[in-house]
């Protein structure tokens, strides 16, 4: 473990102070209540000491000040949809849930920004601003249930971030409670606030720099035309080469996703969308914008697909068919339960031109570890999501799963890629950081953290490596999206 | 293929090497006298059109980089300075966007990875080489606009974009804030909207036929739209400041002479003929700055004289 704080058991005096600071009904200590908060959606379990539900910034400040007084670590939590253990409380930390801070505060439809509270759900924000023909561009597959505060903590992506960028590009300002309880505004409505870009540094800091209590989001105009295509290939290589060729031709589609054969089979059995289950791979390509550009780009993409061996190219004829194709992509992880009861999802990024090479390595690794692997991922930005499926009741399987996972991460980094594209480091990949960063690189990141949190109590033990890590498999929830 | 930073790191040296100032073309900030100067490596080292990334030395002139990218139909969202020159490192150190920010986004989003020389002469890497990356804390964002105070950038990996099929400027001589609001709301993702309160210039990028359709749809609402060769010349507006775009209409209406300002509507950048005072940074935010500078530049030897907190350069 990192040595910035030593975790103490929760003291009754601390709990009493929390119950004085906010309505005692919003301070939970009973095992049955707090057990729900022992992990996020990852496979890593921790232990919450107390769970608080503040409803105002002032209450968050009060909780954090009490934690600082007792040198007690705290963990901010949105919906708990994170996949790397970033919101998993370590050894009795105070969990600060922002779920009840979920208001849309204001919208400026002309200048295209809105102020919101961090517990607002991603999809709720888009629904609220749709009357102005606007939306919030980052769309993680968990967007029905993940919060914007969580998106900020993880710098989340999503299928449609290929053209419009990830969360950092869509956040103008964050009001933040620092680990001593002080309140700062990082960034602002103004485009170039004076000084360092502390806003940008805060986004993606996985709760280790403080807790955001108010966020100014940039909103994006809705498109007027869209075309969604599904093209299938007899080899993964052809699909991967098509991805590179589309980008090299000077086009950045709104989304460019790939599913391999095992995934197509699982999804088709689940939603019956007429997917090409005999194909080695399929690309889901979406182009959006104004009509002439959309028509021209979709034609060029079709030609590129054909020239790379696409067997069939299915163009969604209406919104219902488009929704069905996207349902196939977004419910892929729910469909996997039909194959095996458990999964371990990985998240790495590789250069686009290395997609096929690394995918072949992923298949080899799975084969050598006697595991099944499915691939459904953001091909346009090289963001792989190899999904190892297994039955954890099988003796020795977890060792094979962890060993295969580590090898997948290694081959991705060796191919010129990175550890994570959108899930973050959290606890899951903390000890893999030296694969990508040297001692001086890690020291620079540690310096950044200590500048924001000199007390070291904001979600400690995450991101920066330490000798130990833990993990376990979890069950597949019906309809779970990744 | 990366840049060999060995000799650059040696030239920066460690704590015993004293104060040092990094220079590019010295078009944005002039180096002070009496401080040893170093230059970052220059050159385009690895251009991958199908990755939409480019590896280059921080000392690379932006014009040279854009020329190389233009040959493969791409560009990078880095602004030239007011004299239409400057280096990659200079643009990143200053952190100012250009007039296309409304459509093309912030300059800071172009930076994927840096390798820099720290205060002690070590080469440090931050970010990652791919277009998507959340591996560790986002130190790259902190470097944009840091004026060399956190380390001297030697190598960058930048995100590139396809050149738009067309980039066309339009002008309306007599306008009002409500007309500007109409442009912001009715034009699909305009690249730029500039106004002095009396007239408006706006840029539409994309397919030329979509651009024609947009103008046709605007004509019943906004009369006398003229296509022009480009934006107004901003060289006589050398000063800039940043405000909430909400404040722009009030600010413009309070100006007694419309020729004093040109503002970026929907963004909040004000270009002016006279210097203006930037607001002070709030004390708790200033404290974070001080801690960061203490960590990254403890003796103040890197680019001495810059004050990030007051915004003043000496």
Q: How would you describe what is shown here?
A:
The complex is a heterodimer of chains A (482) and B (314). Chain A has 482 residues and is of the alpha+beta class. In chain A, strand 5 and strand 6 form a beta hairpin. The longest helix of chain B is centred in the last third of the chain and has 14 residues. The relative contact order of chain B is 0.14. The mean pLDDT of chain B is 92. Chains A and B meet through strand 9, helix 7, helix 8, helix 10 and helix 16 of A and strand 7, helix 5, helix 6, helix 7 and helix 9 of B.
List descriptors.
heterodimer; A: 482 residues; alpha+beta; seven-stranded antiparallel β-sheet; five-stranded antiparallel β-sheet; 16 helices; 20 strands; globular; B: 314 residues; six-stranded antiparallel β-sheet; 9 helices; 17 strands; 24% helix
What order do the helices and strands come in, and which of them pair?
The complex is a heterodimer of chains A (482) and B (314).
Chain A: H1 12-21, E1 27-28, H2 31-34, E2 48-52, H3 57-69, E3 74-77, E4 93-97, E5 104-108, E6 113-116, H4 122-129, E7 134-135, H5 148-154, H6 161-164, E8 171-177, E9 183-187, H7 198-202, E10 211-218, E11 220-221, E12 225-233, H8 236-248, E13 255-260, H9 261-271, E14 281-289, H10 291-307, E15 313-315, H11 319-330, H12 332-335, E16 342-345, E17 348-349, H13 355-368, E18 372-377, E19 383-384, E20 386-390, H14 397-414, H15 433-436, H16 439-452
Helix pairs in contact in A: 1-3, 8-10, 8-13, 9-11, 13-14
Chain B: H1 6-12, E1 20-23, E2 36-39, E3 44-48, E4 53-57, H2 62-70, E5 74-76, H3 88-94, H4 101-104, E6 111-117, E7 123-127, H5 139-143, E8 152-162, E9 167-172, H6 177-186, E10 192-195, E11 200-205, H7 208-218, E12 226-228, E13 239-242, H8 248-254, E14 261-264, E15 269-272, H9 283-296, E16 306-307, E17 312-313
Main beta-sheet annotation of chain A:
7 strands, antiparallel
Which of globular, elongated, flat, extended, rod-shaped describes the shape of chain A? globular
How many E strands of chain A? 20
Strand order of the largest sheet of chain A: 15-12-14-13-18-20-16
Oligomerization status of the protein chains: heterodimer
Question: For the residues shown, what is the average pLDDT of chain B?
Answer: 92
Total strands of chain B: the figure is 17
Shape of chain B: globular
Question: What percent of residues of chain B are in strands?
Answer: 25-35%
Radius of gyration of chain B: 21 Å
């Amino acid at each position: 473990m990192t040595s910035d704080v030593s975790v103490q058991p929760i003291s009754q005096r601390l709990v009493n102070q929390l119950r004085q600071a906010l309505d005692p009904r919003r301070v939970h200590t009973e095992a049955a209540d707090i057990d729900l908060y022992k992990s996020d959606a990852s496979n890593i379990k921790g232990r919450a000491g107390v769970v608080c539900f503040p409803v105002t910034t002032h209450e968050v400040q009060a909780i954090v000040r009490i934690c600082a007084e007792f040198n007690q670590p705290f963990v901010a939590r949105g919906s708990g949809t994170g996949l790397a253990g970033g919101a998993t409380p370590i050894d009795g930390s105070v969990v600060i849930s922002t779920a009840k801070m979920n208001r849309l505060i204001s919208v400026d439809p002309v200048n295209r920004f809105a102020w919101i509270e961090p517990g607002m759900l991603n999809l709720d924000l888009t629904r609220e601003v749709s009357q102005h023909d606007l939306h919030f561009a980052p769309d993680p597959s968990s967007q029905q249930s993940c919060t914007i505060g969580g998106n900020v903590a993880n710098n989340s992506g999503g299928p449609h971030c290929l053209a419009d960028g990830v969360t950092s590009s869509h956040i103008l300002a964050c009001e933040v409670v620092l680990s001593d309880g002080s309140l700062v505004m990082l960034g602002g409505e103004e485009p170039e606030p004076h000084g360092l870009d502390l806003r940008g540094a805060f986004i993606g800091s996985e709760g280790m720099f403080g807790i955001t209590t108010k966020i100014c989001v940039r909103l994006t105009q809705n498109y007027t035309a869209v075309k969604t295509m599904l093209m299938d290939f007899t080899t993964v290589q052809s699909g991967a080469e098509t991805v590179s060729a589309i980008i090299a031709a000077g086009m950045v589609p709104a989304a460019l996703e790939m599913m391999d054969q095992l995934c197509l089979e699982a999804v088709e059995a689940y939603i019956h969308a007429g997917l090409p289950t005999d194909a080695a791979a399929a690309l889901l390509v979406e182009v959006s914008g104004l009509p002439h550009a959309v028509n021209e780009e979709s034609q060029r993409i079709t030609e590129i697909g054909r020239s790379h061996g696409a067997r069939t190219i299915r163009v969604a004829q209406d919104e219902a068919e488009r929704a069905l194709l996207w349902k196939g992509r977004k419910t892929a992880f729910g469909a996997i339960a039909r194959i095996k009861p458990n999964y371990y999802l990985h998240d790495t990024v590789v250069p686009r031109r290395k997609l096929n090479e690394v995918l072949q390595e992923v298949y080899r690794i799975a084969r050598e570890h006697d595991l099944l692997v499915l691939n459904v991922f953001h091909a346009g930005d090289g963001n792989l999501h190899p999904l190892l499926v297994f039955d954890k009741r099988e003796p020795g399987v977890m060792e094979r799963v962890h060993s295969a996972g580590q090898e997948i991460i290694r081959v991705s980094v060796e191919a010129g890629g990175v550890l994570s594209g959108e899930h973050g480091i959290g606890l899951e990949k903390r000890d893999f950081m030296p694969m990508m960063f040297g001692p001086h690189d890690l020291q620079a990141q540690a310096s950044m953290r200590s500048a924001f949190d000199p007390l070291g109590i904001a979600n400690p033990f995450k991101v920066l490596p330490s000798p130990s890590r833990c993990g376990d498999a979890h069950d597949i929830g019906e309809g779970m999206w990744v | 293929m990366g840049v060999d930073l060995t000799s650059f790191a040696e030239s920066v040296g460690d704590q015993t090497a004293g104060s040092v100032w990094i220079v590019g073309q010295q078009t944005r900030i002039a180096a002070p006298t009496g401080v040893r100067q170093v230059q970052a490596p220059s050159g385009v080292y690895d251009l991958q059109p199908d990755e939409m990334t480019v590896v280059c030395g921080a000392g690379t002139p932006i014009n040279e980089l854009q020329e190389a990218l233009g040959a493969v139909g791409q560009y990078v969202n880095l602004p030239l300075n007011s004299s239409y020159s400057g280096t990659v490192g200079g643009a990143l150190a200053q952190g100012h966007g250009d007039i296309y920010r409304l459509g093309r986004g912030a300059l800071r989003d172009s930076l994927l990875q840096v390798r820099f020389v720290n205060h002690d002469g070590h080469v440090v890497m931050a970010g990652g080489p791919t277009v998507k990356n959340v591996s560790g804390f986002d130190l790259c964002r902190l470097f944009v606009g840091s004026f060399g105070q956190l380390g001297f950038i030697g190598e960058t990996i930048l995100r590139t974009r396809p050149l738009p099929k067309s980039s066309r400027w339009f002008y309306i001589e007599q306008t009002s804030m409500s007309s500007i609001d109409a442009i912001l709301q009715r034009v699909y993702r305009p690249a730029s909207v500039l106004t002095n309160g009396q007239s408006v210039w706006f840029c539409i990028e994309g397919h030329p036929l979509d651009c024609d359709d947009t103008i046709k749809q605007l004509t019943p609402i906004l009369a006398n739209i003229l296509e022009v060769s480009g934006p107004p010349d901003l060289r006589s507006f050398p000063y800039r400041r940043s405000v909430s775009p909400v404040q722009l209409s009030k600010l413009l209406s309070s100006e007694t002479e419309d020729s004093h300002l040109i503002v970026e509507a929907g963004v909040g950048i004000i270009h002016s003929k006279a210097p203006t005072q930037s607001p002070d940074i709030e004390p708790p935010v200033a404290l974070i700055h001080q801690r960061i500078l203490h960590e990254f530049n403890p003796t103040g030897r890197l680019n001495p004289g810059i004050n990030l907190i007051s915004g003043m350069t000496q």
